[in-house]
Amino acid sequence: MKFKSLNKKSKKVKFSEAVISGLAPDKGLYFPDKYEKLNIDFYNNIEKYSDIDIAYKVLSPFVGDCIPKSILKKIISETLSFQFPIIHIEKNICTMELFHGPTFAFKDVGARFMARCLGFLNSNKNNNVTVLVATSGDTGGAVADGFLGVKGINVVILYPKGKVSDIQEKQITTLGKNITAIEVKGTFDDCQEMVKSAFLDQEIISNQTLTSANSINIARWLPQMLYYFFAFKLLKNKNKPIVISVPSGNFGNLCAGILSKKIGLPIDHFIASTNINDVIPIYLSSGKYTSKKSKETISNAMDVGDPSNFIRILKIYDNNLDKLKKDLSSYSFNDLKTINTIKEVYDINKYILDPHGAVGYLGLKKYLKYNPNNFGLFMETAHPVKFSKIVEKVIDKKIPIPERLKRSIVKKKKSIEISKYEELRNFLIV
Ligand SMILES: *Cc1c(COP(=O)(O)O)cnc(C)c1O
Fold it and tell me: What predicted TM-score, i.e. pTM, was given to this entire model?
């Protein structure tokens, strides 16, 4: 399989080239040239396959001959070194917890897969690769952990000083080795601006390969398909049409779910649940796409005003809104509604939602009200302890900190503080 640029100007490339460069030379996102449905027998017998065999079956057509079978299997089994449990919440509703990875972020799967693919693809090259990312919180920790110790790759993470949580900061700044944390006196937007400037800086890119590790990169985006396959494996015996609600920000996770449906996974319908950053709900109801400046909410990993992966979803439906609406509904919820839901679900079902999962739950409830014959699943994308300041107040109870997280909290922070692009430039050039 090859990957084409959605800006249509660059040539088609293999998996390896798309992973190393991230974005196509014409600045377009890479998208699979063509994809085929998997054999119907596979879906009928999916419960007989191990998660690792499912993952290999799903991902290997995208990877093609760029990574030998034995190595891809090893990469997959290292990526999937933790569980994705499904928890019953109430009649016809359950959640899949995606946060049991090393940094308690659902981005762990994508970051680990991408790190290992890039490590392998770069292993016979002399050029060092620098992964440069800006983070508003969760991405940084997952990327740092995923790439830790991968040979030939240096990771530089920019985060806004004083604007990430204590736990998040420790996850970025305490690993050392090939991970450098840069603390920027400014906002997340300033960090992102600096990253963009570096990618256009000839002097920087002339002596190293610079790449990004956000969900634009196909190696971070595609492995998210696996959640949907694992969910189907566990929910197949419900014998009801399955609908999945995804708390969405940049829409990478949801897009991976929709791509799974396109290769034959029997999911009936998807719900894009958002906070008040409602560009997509508005697009689906009005047909008008208007990007907005992002607004701050308590589900801050979804504070996105111009979701970068939505263009991939449109591509899957040939930009036909009516076709898209048959498979996708989208709703937006404000912080008050989110908080009330965290309280209600805890009081009634004794389940602790995080603010992102709560938005996912709300979207699912809304859809099931009109479609009561479906079975619903929502994705829980973060551990509630990461948002303990909000959640503990709402449920009036302390959330115990998991052991693994405690270990990073006591480690010593190490970072480089900067305020101007020139400082980042000097760091990257030497
Ligand atoms: C990144 C993130 C999201 C949004 O995922 P997208 O793929 O960008 O839509 C949702 N919840 C949490 C906790 C996240 O970290």
Answer: 0.95
